[in-house]
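User: Some background: our group keeps a shared notebook of sequences we're curious about, and every so often someone picks one and asks for a predicted structure to add to the entry. Today it's my turn. The entry only has the sequence so far, pasted here. Could you supply the structure so I can complete it?
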Amino acid sequence: MTVITSKDNPSVKLYMKLSSSKKERRNSGLYVLEGFRLIEDAVNEKALLKQLFFTEDAYEKYSDELSQVDLKEVKILIISNELGIKISCTEKPQGVFAICEMPPARSLEKEIIKSGKYVVLHGLQDPGNLGMIIRTADAVGMDGVILSESCELYSPKVIRSTMGSAFRMKIFETRDTDELFSCLEANGIKSYAAVIDKDAVDLRTITFDGGCAVFIGNEGNGLPPEVASRCTVKATIRMSGHINSLNAAMATGIFMWEMSGSSIH
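Assistant: Of course. Here's the predicted structure to add to the notebook entry:
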């Protein structure tokens, strides 16, 4: 194969645009992946790879593993090691990159499980937090993650932070809070607002029987009062130290652990 050395190559230009532009990702329905293990997870989970880039060194290193994967429908390109460093978003590039097609949006109304356990992220803004929450949800066996007015799922940092869990988890996106609550209520799913409130119910006293959804708010401001007030129960993690709040991903992880109950204890 010819080794691509220029950033002006159409495929490389597309990759760079998708890597840096939310608008480009949204308009094209494409997103990017970086790192061999992440791309391997994508392939194993039947993600829709369109183009695959290897640096010269990476192609030599991973060629044996590559030969065991069905990539008949994927355009494979070899780029120079120097170009791989230029397009990478990581400190220690592995030299493997991909352009992937976004899957069709999931419908919560059609896929919701009445006995399911869900976490609703309302207004979450940090990509690292979102990725970590999706990964933790995968680990503890949540039935889905619902993004409500939160940061973009397909940003490179979010996808990288999930470490492959984004391809396995059921992730729903909505910007209509009324429809979200209507769907939960219609399916008998109890909603819990995670808040910092001395009058809220101590998380340790709650038994998450049946279907339930915990609402987690923005990192800086928490849940808007109008959203928290619509939830069935206001719940809190009681602190015994010298602070009154936790990182959003940490707090969500604690709630999800409690929700998962005996299935992982």
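Suggested note for the entry: The CA atoms of residues 29 and 75 lie 17 Å apart. The two ends are 52 Å apart (CA to CA).
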